[in-house]
Amino acid sequence: MFTYYGGEQRRPSFVIYIVVALISALVGGSLVFYGVANNPELFFRQEMPPGQEEEESPPDFSILPPVDNNGDPYGTIIQIAEKIGPAVVGVSTRRQAYDWFWGAYEVPGVGSGVIFDARGYILTNDHVVHGARTIMVTLHDGRQVQGELVGTDPSTDLAVVKINETNLPVAPLGDSDKLRVGELAVAIGNPLGLELQRTVTAGIISALNRTIQTEDGNVLEDLIQTDASINPGNSGGPLVNGSGQVIGINTAKATQAEGIGFAIPINIAKPIVEELITHGKIITPWLGIIGGTVTREIATYYNLPVDKGVLVAEITPGSPAEKAGLRQGDVITAFNLITIETIEDLTGALEKARVGEKVQLTVVRQGDRQTIAVTLGERPQQ
Fold first, then answer.
1. Cα separation, 198 vs 88, whole angstroms
2. Whether pTM exceeds 0.85
């Protein structure tokens, strides 16, 4: 029935129905005859001779799911969320602050964490638990349990918390050294508070080996960059690959751009976690000098015989450097035969060494090159 707005409704005559039906029958019959004459295979299936089978089309590999570095197909985001989600926890803290007008008061904080060990060890960020008087952990089933701080490493923004619970879900750790730009990345955490627990966002690995400076002045290096949404409450939560393995700990996001977040590679976290569990702190090798990178300008100003290396500007009394005989004005050019051109080179070499290890430093002193053996000590706690 057709309805015309503003006019009278009328019924079509019976003759019109008959005419339309005849025309439709004639047109339909003509189309079928034309189709049979030109494309009989569309209407009749030809029987194959006995013993012969119809050839199948080759598979289209372009529609197969992508694979990870191990050749295994990527899981769906649903599978990843179901696998890792139960191991993601909420971390609520209270720290004491002081105001000259109001006096002492408590400041609440919230972040995320991930259970990586069935004994109750949780990996999170240092800035989530730093200075906390109390730590409360919210599990996936809603239970809230007291958390104990095992140790922190502010230089990498990592911390380990322990809870005394059993039968805990555990997230497997992956290998962040195998990451490739463009592969799947899934972030799970508690953005903006515990009301949005275990929120899942997905994206890709946007870049690798990024260096950023946080609001508190801390410099973080070798970070994973991702466009998976990371918000303040996500800090400490896991960044997961397509195989459902934790490959990073979410730590920061860009404040002046959207879709740029950063995570600490899990391969950086692994040795730090082991040391925190074993010693409760990071035992850092210490040389005991204050130095700077030698440039051409500095070499010219101080009349140095080399234009690359680390100039020793000051030596801490009682330090390994003083005990070994290093002097102010020495230029360190090698560490265990590894060339040292900048202060970053020296710092990196120290980070790979161990407390108590005897290392060979090549130094240039008043034009003479010599080797000095130094037994590294433990960096004093600040």
1. 7
2. no
Residue 183 located in a structural domain: yes
Nearest-5° Cα angle at 316, 315 to 322: 65
Q: Catalytic annotation on 127?
A: yes
Q: How much helix, strand and coil, in percent to the nearest 5, is found in the chain?
A: 25, 35, 40
Residues 208 and 302 occupy one common structural domain: no
Question: What values do phi and psi take at 51, rounded to 5?
Answer: 90, -10
Choice among 126, 153, 157, 330 that is catalytic: 157
Last residue of a domain, one of 134, 162, 190: 162
**Token pair recorded at residue 104:** 């002492």
Total tally of structural domains belonging to the chain: 3
Task: Show the domain range for 317.
Answer: 285-378
User: Are the C-beta atoms of residues 109 and 128 closer than 8 Å to each other?
Assistant: yes
Q: Which of 92, 206, 229, 235 is catalytic?
A: 235
> Based on the domain organization, do 315 and 353 belong to the same domain?
yes
Same domain for 206 and 275, yes or no, is yes
Spot the catalytic one: 92, 127, 176, 227. 127
| Contact (Cβ atoms closer than 8 angstroms) between residue 324 and residue 256 | no
Q: Tell me the per-residue pLDDT of 211-253, one tens digit each, with 9 for 90 and over.
A: 888 877 788 889 999 999 887 778 899 999 999 999 999 998 8
The answer to whether 146 and 163 have CB atoms below 8 angstroms apart is yes
